[in-house]
Amino acid sequence: MSTTGQEIKNVVLVHGAFADGSGWRGVHDKLTARGYRVSIVQIPLTSLADDVAATTRVLDRQNGPAILVGHSWGGTVITEAGLHPSVAGLVYVSALAPDAGETTAQQYEGFGPTPDFVIDVGADGYGFLDHDKFKAGFAADTSDAEAAFLRDAQVPINMAVFGTPVKNAAWRDKPSWAVIATEDRAFDQAMLQHMAKRAGATITTVPASHALYLTQSGVVSDVIATAAQNAAGGAR
């Protein structure tokens, strides 16, 4: 299905590790108020294949071309799932963007450490963010109460996913945009810039923590709307 020239009114949102789809509420409400049809994927964080399958399931339900959006680990997911014929463009929200044949873990090589972003890995191989470091590492610009709720509601990720290579890189074929939080403590800034520039993404920066999908929902929504307006014609 060619999406060129069609008005894009569908948006599909994919959350990242240690979170679920509820953090997209602000983006959902802002975009639906502007007339977009928004779907939020609940990925299981159990494997790259499982997360891509969950995303594909939602993409299959779209009634026309869509903008596919991923936060953090969700960026790896949309990089693979974005080959879906309904996807007209990609938006990376402080997100990972590996190339075909690369693992997510490889994206960190050569970049600075993130001492506030501490993952506690259990005997079963699933990781949670450290209780005491959670706000500093993930959601520094939220209130203490909001950060505590996000911490206490976090969803663990199977750490093996970071060693799974991506088979395809949709950003090589689809126009891309990136929103990068300048106060992100989960990734080195140089790493985020490198991935976005390699993908040829149009980059927007915003002063925010890694939880920018929640705290900067207005900026994120505006970039998604811009992507929807421009991807229809194949522009960036």
Q: Give the strand tally.
A: 9
* Number of helices, where a helix is a run of at least 4 consecutive DSSP H or I residues: 8
Give the class from helix and strand content and strand pairing.
alpha/beta
Q: Give the overall silhouette.
A: globular
What helical percentage do the residues reach? 25-40%
* Ends apart, CA distance between termini: 20 Å
Give the number of domains.
1
The CATH superfamily is identified as: Alpha/Beta hydrolase fold, catalytic domain
Low-confidence stretches: none
What CATH calls the topology is Rossmann fold
Mean pLDDT: 96
| Fraction in beta strands | 15-25%
Strand order of the largest sheet: 2-1-3-4-8-9
Q: Tell me the name of the CATH class.
A: Alpha Beta
* Radius of gyration from CA coordinates: 16 Å
Brief write-up:
The chain is 31% helix and 18% strand.
Task: Describe what you observe in this structure.
Helix 6 (189-198) links the parallel strand 8 (176-181) and strand 9 (202-206). 31% of the residues lie in helices and 18% in strands. The chain has one domain (10-110, 162-231): Alpha/Beta hydrolase fold, catalytic domain (Rossmann fold), CATH 3.40.50. The two termini are 20 Å apart. The chain contains 8 helices and 9 strands.
Compile the SSE list and pairings.
Blueprint: E1 10-14, H1 25-33, E2 37-41, H2 48-59, E3 66-71, H3 73-81, E4 87-93, E5 119-121, E6 126-129, H4 134-138, H5 144-152, E7 157-158, E8 176-181, H6 189-198, E9 202-206, H7 212-215, H8 217-231
Parallel strand pairs: 1-2, 1-3, 3-4, 4-8, 8-9
Antiparallel strand pairs: 5-6, 6-7
